[in-house]
Amino acid sequence: MRHCVIGCIAGLVMSTLAACTGIPTAQQTPEVVLASVAVETATQAVVPAPTVTLLPTLEPEPVAATELQPALEPLAQVNGVVTQTGGLIKGLAIDPPFVYLTNGPGLSILDASDPAHPRQVGQITLADTTFEDVAVAGGLAYLVGPSGLWIVDISDAAVPRLVSHSRLPANGKAVAIQDTLAYVAANGIYTNPPGQNGLFIVDVAIPASPVLVGSLVVDEDTYAVDVQDKLALLVAGGVHFVDVSDPAAPKSVGFYRPEFGMVQAVAVTGDKAYVNAFNDFSVFDITDPGAPARLGSLPVNGSDIAVADDLAFVAAGGVTVVDVSDPTAPTGIGWYWAPVTSLELSPADNLAYIVVGQSGLDVVDVSNPRRQTLAGSWEIVPGGPSWDDPSITKPAGVPGRINAVTLANGHLFAVEADHGLWAFDLSDPASPQPI
Residue 199 class from Cβ within 10 Å (0-12 exposed, 13-18 middle, 19+ buried)? Predict the structure, then answer.
């Protein structure tokens, strides 16, 4: 599974306006009203979760060959950058040596065994809309978007094959895979007719016949989901703690809403969940999924979290390092200032990789968390909407905006929404280079 860090930045991108029809129903699941349980808190009340209901059973929607769109144009490569031709790139998954991109209405597969020359080896066009997220597990790719859940066989990267397409009652925003279940966070606000916001659990044991086994409807727009064992964390205004021990009857056991703003990120490690919102960093004990307890908090604003040992790295106008060795009293011990709000964070060894603003990458040495130092940086968009400090960065010549980063085999891959995938050589962290 991917590293369980979920970044959620509300308001940056408007959800795609798309039509989403109802689910063809073969068998009606009886309505079940799920009780909610109050969550213990040390410093701030956790409000009970709203009443929820199960939705009808999902049936796969057959996809005739005539429904498929023409093949995507191959991704072009310019100076080591794989540029996008098929549509907006929003989702990225890595299963070395392959990189999987939701390339507008389809999936593109790149061979990145040579990061200096990523090479497209396969692609498939699936829908007439833009996919929001992709997850990869067991030789299958799971894509979600306004048109539902799509499952693609990627066992042969050169010839990805559509296995099934199932419509959901809302627009898929994020997907996480655990065992034979797909957990989909979805929004219904922009569907016609209006659908449901919430968590949809799909049994994908038989990929050709996925079945919606349970769902949890919430009032807020949903943006992200993470799952660990029997607990799912659904980011929707706040964080819904969902007991998924019985996938057919997911039960909300608590809902945490920060005093101000919305939850933006969640990271789960072991029996702790770290939640970041506007001016609120909180630690939860999730030892008992039925009773997650808020242990402590710190007034830190942030848009992303990464946790290593007893330190939490919070993207908060730079990097704030929080000592969480005592979860009841998280303490800020260091701070690295960046001129633009950080959007993503991925620590590796003693280095933190952060996306700065819309166009920059900083590599920060955190070997001494109390005195973090800039090890290297790289910036795109000369003359664009970014800060240009020659003492810090050395501009390069490709415009764009970096949305997300991930690490694999000593290289960093960055998704730049308008142009595609960038690969960086990190062998010299003082001088990360696009390759």
Answer: buried
What digits encode the pLDDT tens for the residues 178-193? 999 999 999 876 665 6
Q: Are strands 342-348 and 351-356 parallel, antiparallel or unpaired?
A: antiparallel
Integer Cα distance of 424 and 435 in angstroms: 6
**Which residue from 380, 391, 426 is spatially nearest to 78, judged by alpha carbons?**
380
The DSSP secondary structure of 200-256, one letter per residue, reads EEEE-SSTTS-EEEEEEEESSPP-EEEEETTEEEEEESEEEEEE-SSTTS-EEEEEE
Report the pLDDT averaged over residues 206-226.
90
Of 168, 175, 177, the closest CA to residue 197 belongs to: 168
pTM of model > 0.85: no
Q: Residues 6 or more apart from 266 whose CB is under 8 A from it? A: 5, 6, 8, 224, 226, 233, 235, 239, 273, 274, 275, 276, 305
The 8-class DSSP code of residue 65 comes to G
pLDDT at residue 226 tops 50: yes
Cα 322 from Cα 330, distance rounded (Å)? 6
**Of 193, 174, 170, 190, nearest to 182 (Cα)?**
174
DSSP secondary structure letters along 151-191: EEE-SSTTS-EEEEEE--SSEEEEEEEETTEEEEEEE-TTS
**Cβ neighbours for 309, distance < 8 A, ≥ 6 positions apart:** none
Tokens coding 167: 């419509």
Task: Please choose, from the candidates 339, 301, 353, the residue with its C-alpha nearest in 3D space to the C-alpha of residue 322.
Answer: 301
Answer for the pair 415, 89: CB distance below 8 angstroms, yes or no. yes
Nearest alpha carbon to residue 6 among 327, 303, 384: 303
Q: How many Cβ atoms from other residues are within 10 Å of residue 428's Cβ?
A: 11
- Give 94's pLDDT tier (boundaries 50, 70, 90): confident
User: pLDDT band at 129, cuts 50/70/90?
Assistant: confident
Distance CA 114, CA 98 (A): 10
Give the pair of three-digit tokens for residue 126: 């699936």
- Which amino acid is located at 231 in the chain? L
Using CA atoms, how far apart are residues 269 and 279, in angstroms rounded to an integer?
22
- Tell me the two tokens of residue 398: 């490709």
